[in-house]
Amino acid sequence: MTKRPLIIAPLLLAPMLALSGCISLGGEPPASLLTLSPTASAPAGPGPGSADQPVIAVLSFDTPAKLDVLRVPVAVSDTELAYLAEAFWVEKPARLFRRLVGETIRARGGAMVVDGDSTATLASVTVRGTLIEMGYEAQTSEAVVRFDAVRIDKDGKVATRRFEAREGGVTADTRAVGAALNTAANKVAGEVADWVAGG
After folding, report:
1. Residue 24's pLDDT band (boundaries 50, 70, 90)?
2. In terms of Cα–Cα distance, which of 124, 130, 144, 132 is closest to 196?
3. Which residue of 60, 63, 183, 189 could cross-link 104, Cys pair, CB 3.0 to 4.6 Å?
4. Is 110 exposed, middle or buried, given 0-12, 13-18 or 19+ CB atoms closer than 10 A?
5. What domains, with CATH codes, occur in the chain?
6. What percent of the chain has pLDDT over 90?
7. pLDDT tens digit string along 111-162?
8. Cα–Cα distance for residue pair 19/35, rounded to 1 Å
9. Which residues contact 42 (CB under 8 A, 6 or more apart)?
10. Nearest-angstrom CA–CA distance, 196 and 199
11. How far apart are CA 29 and CA 92, in angstroms?
């Protein structure tokens, strides 16, 4: 019995070719990834209940395109932007910062915090906003975190505020910038938590 040659149908070949474009087999993976770590965390065990504490929902944060990536932006000048070599976030900055804000509010112990968009209807207060900056300024050697927050209470009253923290004297390398951004992000998260709690 003669063997027939193997024929791959074009319709089957096209998805395989498309998939190969999404997978990189070359190049070295980054040695480490950056993340944000809270300086204070809620203890293990049951948290406050909604009957005796406000419920705060931390919703998704918006961000400009320069931060909608896994890279650390570097402001070279007022009109030039680059990315820090070999510096990669483990997750997009807006998601990392959202979790940091939620954990910082939770660690204060004065509220029940929900950080899923689908649970926002349970909240008496919602927090959202835009992470405008989380990067490095080459001209001033500073790590900068800037956040425009929006607080909406159960009666629909809206309050807004801009928060910013800077860490100076930072060299343009991955470890130094990552540590400085973590410090600045925690400062902003702490100020946001105090602002939200203060009503």
Report:
1. very low
2. 124
3. 189
4. middle
5. 52-198 (3.40.50.10610)
6. 61
7. 888 876 656 667 889 999 999 999 999 999 999 999 999 999 888 899 999 9
8. 29
9. 103, 106, 107, 109
10. 5
11. 17
Token pair for 53: 């504490």
Q: Residue 49 has which token pair?
A: 């209940």
125-137 and 142-153 as β-strands: parallel, antiparallel, unpaired?
A: antiparallel
For residue 134, CA distances in Å to 64, 131, 147, 167, 192 come to 11, 7, 9, 11, 16
Residue 121: both structure tokens together: 């209807």
Higher pLDDT, 42 or 27: 42
Place of tokens 């419920």: 55
Concatenating the DSSP letter of every residue in 62-105 gives: E--GGGSSSEEEEE-SSS-EEEEEEEEBSS-HHHHHHHHHHHHH
